Amino acid sequence: MKADAAQLNDWLMRIDTFNATPGEGTTRAVYTKEFYRAREYLKKEMQDLGLEIHEDCVGNIYGEYKGRHPECPPVWTGSHIDTVPHGGRYDGMAGVFAALEVIRMMKSDGYQPKRSIFVNAYAGEEMSRFGMCCIGSRAIVGRIHQQDLKDARNMAGESIFDVLSHDGFEPERFNRDFSTKPRVHASLELHIEQNRILQDKDISIGIVTGICAPTNLRCEIHGIQSHAGGTSMEDRRDAFMASAEIALALEHLAKASDSEYITGTVGAMKLEPGAANVIPGQADFSIDIRSISAQDKDDLVEALQRKIDEITRNRGVTYQLEQLNNDTPYICSPHIRELLHESAKELELPVLDMISGAYHDSLMLGDITDAAMIFIPCKDGISHDRKESIDMDDLAKGTDLLAATLRRLSEE
Ligand code: HGY
Ligand code: MN
Ligand code: MN
User: Fold this and answer.
1) Three-state DSSP class for 221?
2) I need a surface site. Which of 7, 22, 106, 326 has the fewest CB within 10 A?
3) What is the C-alpha R_g of the chain?
4) What does the alpha-carbon distance between residue 210 and residue 190 come to, in Å, rounded to a whole number?
5) Where exactly are the structural domains of the chain?
6) pTM score > 0.85 for this model?
7) Burial 125-144 (b: 16+ CB within 10 A, else e)
8) Is the CB of 82 within 6 Å of ligand 1?
9) What is the pLDDT of residues 101-111, one digit of tens each?
10) What digits encode the pLDDT tens for the residues 192-246?
């Protein structure tokens, strides 16, 4: 049976109704009412397909399609359903519903896999709300512990732990829920490409060879708040201008690097007091650095720290730099990539091997199992934006490839 594009579209449109900013892109931040409603909707669709649902205290959902030998380590698939602010409706959700469609197809064909197949929705893949990405998949693989939930605070001062407690998830169960790492035979995630390479080459399927990893820092600059008119240009200790010079230094270092793939971004900034006629005394901003090479990323971070020292000394301001995470890039499972190529050949689907500039839950899952990813194009490479869009036929083709390869994996 082939994937049904109309069914996929219907699921994607329905989950998109759980949105804090209708008409202005999709906003479904982790641990918000929109996120909880979307979770309930997804669980109902899983139940309607006869999946056995498991959950944990950080909001991960695991929908089990029982295999003939459920005692064997299962095969995992799925992605995330939280979004960035004013983002798109396919980043994450395409992978969750492609996985659900695979189960629907298998059931229609009367096929029961040897190994159970789990359709998962990992909580908090986006870092937008708390500065920590992949909260759910980090917890599963043991990259974070209960204390990290208390330490991870957003600019409003809320911690993940407090929000989970307030919303009834009992995060004090963390050590019990994640006391042992799950035995997983393999993990395969479908995701939109979030770049335009597939579109430019007019190919519908990408097979991801490696996943770039982020280093995320929070930088605070402390200058002197003073009058925008009364303070001469020579007398200023302007926290924003120092931040701006640091951001341009980051851009210059990333562009000058000879790394195969490296990026540097300042995406969030808060100025105090934030008034047009006051020189900012404080600037608090995010630094996001990604690369497929851990060494290149570390080199860039070190070079940037030297520049921050120099810039703040020259400007007579001080700074604090906090590292939130420093993840290691992941080279996707050669074995699963081979199966993907075999399945693509069988389905007569042209494919392209490519790296992922974005990180994904698979970056974490690679700690506990063989992990790989399938990409489908997104129009003009646009993502993390309301204009994010895909061709449903591409998603259907990607789902067919996901189905064929999950079948191979679950029979191993
Ligand atoms: O930011 C990322 O790479 C991912 O899309 N959350
Ligand atoms: Mn994203
Ligand atoms: Mn994503």
Assistant:
1) strand
2) 22
3) 22
4) 14
5) 5-212+329-410, 213-326
6) yes
7) bbbbbbbbbbbbbbbbbebb
8) no
9) 999 999 999 99
10) 999 999 999 999 999 999 999 999 999 999 999 999 999 999 999 999 999 999 9
Asked if 388 and 204 count as a contact pair (C-beta separation under 8 A), the reply is: no
Is any ligand 1 atom within 6 A of the Cβ of residue 125?
Answer: yes
Which residue, by CA, sits nearest to atom 5 of ligand 1? 358
Residues whose CB falls within 8 Å of the CB of residue 160, separated by 6 or more in sequence, listed in order: 31, 58, 124, 130, 132, 135, 149, 150, 152, 171
- Amino acid at site 392: M
Contact 50, 107 (CB under 8 A): yes
> Is 358 a pocket residue for ligand 1 (Cβ < 6 Å)?
yes
**In angstroms, how far is CA 328 from the centroid of its own chain?**
14
For 5-212+329-410, CATH gives 3.40.630.10
| Nearest ligand 1 atom to alpha carbon 360 | 4
The answer as to CATH 3.90.1110.10 being correct for domain 213-326 is no
DSSP at 21 = S
Give the CA angle between residues 182, 188, 191 to the nearest 5°: 125
Query: Amino acid identity of 269?
Result: M
